[in-house]
């Protein structure tokens, strides 16, 4: 097929594109759901839901997030297929909205994964397109190149929590992150995952905590702003930065320190849901871009 905008042709096969099962839309959808499950199975993540507790959330727990992640798998497959067919944002948005509907039906109306459907959904679509046009560079860059303009052109929803926060604090949130090619995934979370593995001698859960803390220290998370205002965002960033400065997961007692940060977030009703999404996205891109 013709690459998007006629600019993305590459002479050699892409690392995503070996002709085996790994390249199928089903495999891409499976990896998206796996990334969401790995995110849930990570503790302590400040304020967030995990297999150990529900953090600052009254309406969800790990079982509900796992159910939601599995419910979404066929939609990630559909997004990968749509990406492979070089679909525009109107088509992707329709599938994303159907996924949101299925999520709400499965969870009794709880917003378990709205932000994740958007970010991981776009990455799944990009993985499908990469498969079809021999793209060899990061998937985030493909999102920016193929759909960035359309994402930016669509007006922000005014009544969503993200919309309220965007107007009040002038932050771009999930849409800006995507249109820019997911810089928080590539410049923050991926290096922090690698750091975490080095510091904690290959402990994968520790590496995910390190990445979660690095994201919280760096991202303007609209969930933190909605729940805690500028003070909440600054508190969250300060605590995560201090955890990293003190040695992160390279210390013997790191889990106790992370647990006390988690408890401080819960006491203030703070939850960085956008950072949880970005952690899952980083895990997804690691699985796809090897
Ligand atoms: C783009 C969407 C998800 C963003 O919503 P909005 O900014 O209006 O706010 P909303 O409160 O609904 O969701 C925000 C969510 O984004 C995540 N988030 C918050 N801050 C950030 C950040 N800085 N970076 C990335 N994600 C973030 C959180 O999970 C948060 O809950 C939504 O409005 C939308 O357009 N859905 C339609 C589906 C769609 O277009 N799909 C495309 C293909 S999958
Ligand atoms: N493990 C997790 N724990 C909590 N939130 C998560 C987790 N993983 C992802 N998220 C993201 O966080 C968002 C939900 O956060 P939250 O419940 O704070 O938002 P809300 O429904 O907009 O607000 P509120 O619950 O304050 O009314 C989801 O869109 C989801 O993508």
Q: What order do the helices and strands come in, and which of them pair?
A:
Elements: H1 25-40, H2 62-84, H3 89-107, H4 114-133, H5 139-153, H6 161-169, H7 173-179, H8 183-199, H9 204-218, H10 222-245, H11 254-267, H12 273-288
Helix pairs in contact: 1-2, 1-4, 1-12, 2-3, 2-4, 3-4, 4-5, 4-12, 5-7, 6-10, 8-9, 8-12, 9-10, 9-12, 10-11
This protein binds dephospho coenzyme A (COD) and adenosine-5'-triphosphate (ATP).
Adenosine-5'-triphosphate binds next to helix 1, helix 4, helix 10 and helix 12.
Describe the structure in your own words.
- With 290 residues, the chain is an all-alpha fold.
- It has a domain at 185-274.
- The protein has twelve helices and no strands.
- It has helices at 25-40, 62-84, 89-107, 114-133, 139-153, 161-169, 173-179, 183-199, 204-218, 222-245, 254-267, 273-288.
- The longest helix is centred in the C-terminal third of the chain and has 24 residues, at 222-245.
- The two termini are 23 Å apart.
- Residues 1-15 and 17-21 have low confidence and may be disordered.
- It binds dephospho coenzyme A and adenosine-5'-triphosphate.
- Residues 39-40, 48-49, 57, 65, 111, 113-116, 161, 223, 227, 271, 273, 276-277 line the site of adenosine-5'-triphosphate.
């Amino acid at each position: 097929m013709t690459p998007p905008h006629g600019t993305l042709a590459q002479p050699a096969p892409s690392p995503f594109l070996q002709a085996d099962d790994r390249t199928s839309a089903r495999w891409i959808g499976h990896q998206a759901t796996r990334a969401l499950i790995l995110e849930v199975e990570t503790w302590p993540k400040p304020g967030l839901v995990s297999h150990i507790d529900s953090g600052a959330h009254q309406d969800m727990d790990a079982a509900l997030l796992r159910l939601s992640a599995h419910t979404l798998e066929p939609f990630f497959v559909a997004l990968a297929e749509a990406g492979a067919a070089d679909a525009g944002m109107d088509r992707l948005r329709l599938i994303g909205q159907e996924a949101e509907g299925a999520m709400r039906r499965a969870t009794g109306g709880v917003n378990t994964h709205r932000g994740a459907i958007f970010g991981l959904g776009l990455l799944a679509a990009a993985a499908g397109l990469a498969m079809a046009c021999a793209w060899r560079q990061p998937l985030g860059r493909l999102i920016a190149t193929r759909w960035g303009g359309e994402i930016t052109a669509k007006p922000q929803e005014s009544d969503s929590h993200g919309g309220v926060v965007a107007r009040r604090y002038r932050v771009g949130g999930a849409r800006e992150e995507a249109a820019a090619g997911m810089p928080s995934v590539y410049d923050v979370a991926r290096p922090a995952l690698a750091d975490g593995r080095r510091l904690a001698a290959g402990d994968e859960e520790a590496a995910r905590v390190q990445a979660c803390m690095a994201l919280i220290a760096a991202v303007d998370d609209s969930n933190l702003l909605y729940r805690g205002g500028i003070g909440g965002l600054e508190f969250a960033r300060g605590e995560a930065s201090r955890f990293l400065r003190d040695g992160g997961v390279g210390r013997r007692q790191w889990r106790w320190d992370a647990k006390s940060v988690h408890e401080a977030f819960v006491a203030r009703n703070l939850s960085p849901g956008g950072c949880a999404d970005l952690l899952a996205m980083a895990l997804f891109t690691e699985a796809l871009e090897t």
